[in-house]
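User: Sequence in, structure out. Go.
Assistant: Echoing your sequence, followed by the structure tokens.
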Amino acid sequence: TGSGKSSLLHTMISSAALEYSPQELRLVLLDFKKGVEFQVYAELQLSHTDIIGIESRREFGLSTLEYIDRILSARGEAFRQWGVQDLPSLKRKHPQVQLPRILVVIDEFQELFVEDDKISQQASMLMDRIVRQGRSFGVHLVLASQTLGGAYSLPRTTLAQMAVRIALQCDSADAMLILNEDNPAAERLRHSGQGIYNDAGGRLEANQNFQVAYLSKQEQLERLGKLPAVALPYSPTTNSIGRRVVFEGHKLAIWDTQSIRSALGAIPSSSTNRWTLGDSVSIEPAVIRTLEQAPGRNAMIVTSHDDLVASLVASWIKTNETSAPLVLEPIAANTTIPPNAFWILDGSRSEDLAIQKLLVGLDGHPACQVHANRDIEEVFKKLEIEYQRRSADPLQRHGSLVVFILNLAKFRELRREEDYSFGGDPEGASKPDAVLNKLLSDGPSVGIHLCIWSDSAATLSRWLSRGSIRDIEIRVLGQMSANDSNQLIDSNQANRLDRNVMLVHDDADGKATKFRPFTLDSLLEK
């Protein structure tokens, strides 16, 4: 709006980084508006930064507050052991202990409270705790917003705990909300960058007029770029995750084999069939689902965006490559679990360029077979034979076979009919739609899992019966109407997704988790 808020935040952050070393100051930066305000600090890999959120999501904001709350708890315990009550007394009593202050800057913080839900309630509780207790432990919160008006904001009791108020050019209503009911001085500010600093809870007599110091982008880059790189601290009282987290909510995630392998290793599961869907939208490891050999362990992908589908298919195959070393125990003497295999039934259209790119990238892959939609009857005959072979030996543990059906609407042979007659003709062959429904209900128990991409919930319901849809426990959804979302997961959560964010709902535990799929390029890298 031209008030100078962005300039003020950059000046504050940059001057703090120039004045204090990374051992003295840690930065946690969150931006909830549509923009890349804090991108510069990620690009510079500023050593002071622990968390940078660019176009942050509410889930990421909440998990950041939880991260700060864990640090407060760790510092509280450490202070009790050291016999001190605050940071100044720690420095006097134990000068050898280096405990940096933590500056948390949240731009457009009211976005955390735009919905009356658990995220809003938990964020309000955590923010109140940080405001009340943080200063003693060296944790300081800076909240910025274009306006404090409207229904969505922090409780007044929390704001009342914040003694330092800075008001830039605004109307009288905001002026009195920011400062005090009897202090509308900010409405008289006329120029960009003019402000009032007040460190007495907004009392009129404490007003100090000032002009924001302007820091050009070029000078900012030059000054911060000269700062030496310093290794990130790793301790419960400073950085409890041991790495810098950069969240870019408007972009797809980048596959990182090392962190994915670490996340896979932390999951206790007897299944070797795991699917890394993408990066969590909170400060959590990658979102991973396991497909045990049990009823219902099939998957659906419902979105109109083929690039997201290509990413999900590639990430499942990539997970298999990444987690192969994690198969620890043989199933019998001199026997190991056979490697997972992937069959792709390609019903993509000419405009589905990401799918075409995926198939080119998988050409020659030892674990993958690609079949055109004209081969549907032959493929399902083979699947029926394979299912019967596996079913005949129920005690044998089979390797997983994942069958991707890409673009369900292109496979008319799979559309449901009234009479399925599985294995009904003299040669034992059944119609593809009958085999499909049999595999959905019984295939996972013998290691055959289906993953069906449909462009909409309507297509799914035309092709599959309600019973068959119930046999698909893992439901990966992109942007869709509230009606479609409710039809698939009994919630309208998918209606509120952004373009590059999806959610996975698993009927096994009833939980829905949002994530950012990986870029296809990062998945196809050798």
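User: And one key feature?
Assistant: The domain at 5-248 is CATH 3.40.50.300 (Rossmann fold).
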